[in-house]
Design a protein that fits this description.
By secondary structure, the chain is α+β, with helices and mostly antiparallel strands. The radius of gyration is 23 Å and the shape is globular. The longest helix is centred in the middle third of the chain and has 35 residues. Helix 9 packs antiparallel against helix 10, helix 9 runs antiparallel to helix 12 and helix 11 runs antiparallel to helix 12. Strands 3, 4, 5, 6, 7, 8 and 9 form a seven-stranded mixed sheet that branches. Helix content is 50%, strand content 12%. It has 18 helices and eleven strands. Bound molecules: flavin-adenine dinucleotide. Flavin-adenine dinucleotide binds next to strand 3, strand 5, helix 12 and helix 13. The site of flavin-adenine dinucleotide has 22 residues, from strand 3, strand 5, helix 12 and helix 13.
Length: 539
Amino acid sequence: MDFPNQPPPFEGFNLFDVDIALREAVTRDAAQWAVPQLRAWGETLGSPDTYALADAANRNVPVLRTYDRRGERLDEILFHPAWHALMRLAAEAGEHCAPWRTPQPGAHAARAAGYYLHAQVENGTQCPLTMTYASVPVLARHAPQGGADWMSRILANDYDSRVLPIAQKRAALIGMGMTERQGGSDVRANITRAEPDADGAWRISGHKWFFSAPQCDAHLVLAQTAAGLGCFLMPRVNPDGERNAIRINRLKDKLGNRSNASAEVEFDRALAWPVGPADRGIATILEMVQYTRLDCVIGSAGIIRAALASALHHARQRTTFGRRLAEHPLMANVLADLALESEAALLLAMLLARASEADAEPSLRAAARIVTPAAKYWVCKRAIAATAEAMEALGGNGYIEENPLPRLYREAPVNSIWEGSGNIVCLDVGRAIRRESDAVDALQVLIAGARGANGHYDRRAAMLDSTLRAAHADGSDGRRIAQAVAVTVAAAQLIRHAPPEVADAFCNSRLAEDAFAGAAFGTLPDTSRAARLLERALA
Ligand SMILES: Cc1cc2nc3c(=O)[nH]c(=O)nc-3n(C[C@H](O)[C@H](O)[C@H](O)COP(=O)(O)OP(=O)(O)OC[C@H]3O[C@@H](n4cnc5c(N)ncnc54)[C@H](O)[C@@H]3O)c2cc1C
């Protein structure tokens, strides 16, 4: 029986087909070849079965099994079958490795599109997939020892959750361990120590306070050496089949990201192999962080998109005061505003994915050194606000755990915290501006190229140079600068690639000198084109 005025859940749609801006971006970014697989992925992800898996994986959180029945240490994580089913789907889609496994034009764009679709349905599973994807350039560059071919297992489009030495596995996943009790942002404060052992192996003793996906086959771990902070590949199981000396003390009880296991661990002379020079650990791991930050942007864009799609789907069917919700001018303002935020976030994510391509223009790569931390700051922050607003569009139902909004809302802040919390990435923006003049020049070129289409944009673009030059050396205005960069670049991308009504509505609401704009969604100064914006937002 159909209950009157209770819209069905947003399920059973092909998430790729209903997303006009994504389809355009994929074609534009040379990934037309990926359309059939993305369409299949959008169909799988949008099905009620996959939403049910996502729900089950988050309701039945992973459990730590410290000992086996005989009292032997196990340090294993028990996951609900839904977790494994989702991991298998994503690994077979190559989310952890595809651009490295098959380098080709548009490879990172295609992977970004797939990751963006996945982010709309379940986020915890994305943590090990991201860390594995980000580890590949580091492991390829430094080729650590380890008695087996790690790379062929990492590049397998397969999922193998068995606890075995790497030589016996079909596929492998990689995590990263940097954060300690006394410091996460300031990893130089790490106290965990590494000492050389025989045959190129090292032994690591100490702890990590956050160690996500401890079930991964290995982690890239930072530890102090006599020469300085080094980076090491620490296997979960040693080549001889013994479990490595990694004790899982407990799993974190987290606000969101609950399907994923995040552990506190101790190392008791755990085996590891150096990755890069013993004193270059931060530089080594920073290469990885560049890709994990990219995924924070793509993932947060996906969260915004999921929130928007749910809200719009609901508002098109729910009636209040004799009209569809979406037809009420003030609700249309809110939804159109969310749609602008969503498309802007997507275009920023796709721009950064393009900058990762093997054939990316050098100037785009240079600009990305500023735009990546700026977008990481801004898009992750906007996801927090957007999920709250979308929840409200569903009224009381939005607050109820039977629909995905509460989970998206709880998930949103974590992308802003890990891989460089808000202030840290804003300080990175400032450092890049002060030290890397080629990156600033490239950013200026990127922004100047979109001039001439919108007066507010042109005025902001002209001001950006002086805004960057006036950046305070102490970083105190870091958030203002990062926001200015992210919003202006997003506007440039919309001017280049979105219909004029989208780009104008974004510029007029985000770049005009209106002190109220942006404080909350639903404050667009002009909604005469809202219906057009909403048609585009969800086909
Ligand atoms: C769910 C979850 C999973 C995680 N998984 C992992 C993992 O797998 N591996 C891993 O290594 N870490 C992981 N982390 C840890 C995460 O990366 C850190 O929490 C994060 O880097 C911040 O470090 P911290 O917690 O020590 O906070 P702090 O470094 O103490 O920072 C606290 C706040 O102060 C701000 N701050 C710090 N320094 C400055 C400054 N100079 N100026 C202005 N503001 C500043 C920061 O931006 C932050 O907002 C995870 C965290 C969470 C929540």
